[in-house]
Amino acid sequence: MTNPSFAGACADLTISGVPTSKLAPAGEVQLPKVSFIVRNWNYARYIGVTIDSIRAQDYPNFEAIVIDNASSDDSRDIIERHVDDDPRFLIIHSEVNLGPLGGGLLGLEHATGDFVAFIDSDDTLLSNFASAHIQVHLASRRNVAFTSSSAMETGPNGAMLNGRRTRSDTRCDETTDGLRPAEVVPRLRSIDNDTYAVLARHTRLLQPVSMKWPWSPGTSNVYRRFMLDMLTPNCDPSDLPKLATDGHYNRLAHLLGGSAVIDLPLSTYRIHGDNFAASTPSLASMGGDAGPATKFHMLRVREMVRVFVANAPDFSIQIGQKRYWNALGALFELGGLKSAADRVAWNRDDFFSSQIQHLTVSFGERKTLRRLSEIVPSDLLREGVSSLHGANFPRRIRQELMLSSARRLHARIKSAIRKSRHRRSAGSY
């Protein structure tokens, strides 16, 4: 006898127009669960409508975990009232303000979904947010680590300021069309043929290479849960409130598994002057990131490097050593390597030296120094090695350091040639 709950879950999926309940044993093909993790701190004036927008999703299989970060306003009462008795919601009150990333990690401890979206409590979702993202994940020409949709910018009262938050553009050679033909993929019941065609036209896959910031803010992203588990931060707890979920996960997840951009507005980004990342509307010629988060850029980059280096044995196998070292170089470049102040910041508290030590364990000292000499300045490399060996370097290390400047020059020449080829190929489109 067929379990009614399994049959209902299967009925939400079709392949070539045939319900999967007729194609597979009961319970074998079900919609994935989406976990919405809402982080709130003193946003009583907005959190209610955020919760309402989650409850209004047309996607049937989701849970929502609301983390209140020790709010001192009326947030608790507002949250309780808007959640009501909805069994899909779990409310957790933290006794301390864990910040956006810390609250997200607490939510992850309780999340059971296959996909995760971190929701800021001053933003809202359109009712088709989850269904559009999951449809793209299920129909993508290449499986990706996360999807990112466009976000409409609104003011404090919900009035629209921009139809899309400005993002960096990507080159033609970095993107491909996103979705497979509609008749050969699992289809959600809420995604009809016309809607699928619109998704297909406006979804682009991004190659797993370094790029500026082609994604939308945190609320707009839907991650595969296992990717988040692979990239868990390991910083001092006191630094967690300074970090953000998208700032930590997006680049790392993209460099490992690639991403997809859905160029359709599926959520709102509310600008009210107290935002953590952006306090003004974004303009193509000046951007809008001017919030407190900008002060913690170097801390965020160092934490991404820490995670990427700590997982070097696994990541270098999963994506290959060439891609691994290219990605690590991109993270170092993101943190800045040009000025003396940059290099001081990299090795504050012997951070860079400890990364060399971890990489040496994974790849051996000779290969580590050879690779690092191609992506970091020779004086930073020498300082890092010096803290490990003291003034009396072993002879083999001294030789590697003598060659580091030449290797870095060679790497810069190769990079210039590669960029020149990209410009020429982009100009041919």
From TrEMBL:
Residues 149-177 are annotated as: Disordered. InterPro entries: Glyco_trans_2-like, Glycosyltransf_2, Nucleotide-diphossugar_trans. It comes from the Bacteria. Residues 35-145 form the Glycosyltransferase 2-like domain. This is Glycosyltransferase family 2 protein.
